[in-house]
Amino acid sequence: MGVLQSVNEQPRVPIGRITFHLQTSLYRKKDGEFSKVRDYLKIGETRDVFDVNGDYIEIQNGLYIKNIDEHQYTMTFGEIIVRGDNVRSCSKNGIILRKLRPGLKVKVVSLKFISNDVTVFGINEKEFISSDEDVQYVMGIFEFGADSLKNGQSIKFQKGDTTPYQRVEGHKLLLLDGTWLDISTLRGTLHGC
Fold it and tell me: How far apart are CA 25 and CA 43, in angstroms?
């Protein structure tokens, strides 16, 4: 559940999603201090993540969680879609662990930027896939808050339609088909995936 916004202001882009395995307290930051709020997150609840800073994780609506054990939650940073026939996962030492089938979608639990062109995606604690492989990274999903056209083209989106994106630059989303969608005049919500 993201925040519906007219995205002509700088959009808040979620960096991931977090799902809780235990009931978790919520905090609000005011004047640099954190204070507990009356609400809490229920078991199995999933929220977008906007920032991770030390022991604090910022989730939607200016709320934070703090000092929780990593076994209390699962955090993901998008997903990858296997495109090619010869995509392999490797250990952190580079040993090939298995071959992945085309069309498989796996959640990304860690990211490591090796260079400008290469990212290593962790799909669990022991398996990694390089962006050199034939995979498609999905950073999140844009949900349309009103009917609109795709950059003035004849492709029409209706309220509630979603489109996955792989990157955000300012007010533009790089969609999976390689086209850029200018969201500065659109109403909608950015979600992690």
Answer: 11
pLDDT in tens, 162-176: 989 998 888 889 999
Cβ(25)–Cβ(64) below 8 Å: no
Q: Which two tokens stand for residue 139?
A: 């950073």
**C-alpha to C-alpha distances, 122 to 117, 134, 169, nearest whole angstrom:** 17, 15, 24
- % of the chain surpassing 90 pLDDT: 41
Question: So what's the pLDDT on residue 135?
Answer: 94
Residue 45 DSSP one-character state: -
With H, G, I as helix, E, B as strand and everything else as coil, classify residue 61.
Answer: helix
Cα separation, 16 vs 192, in Å, equals 5
Q: Is 126 left (phi over 0), alpha (psi -120 to 50) or beta?
A: alpha
Nearest Cα neighbor of 136 from 97, 171, 115, 165 is 165
* pLDDT tens column, 4-28: 444 456 678 899 999 999 998 999 9
Strand order, beta sheet including 110-113 = 96-100, 87-90, 128-130, 119-122, 110-113
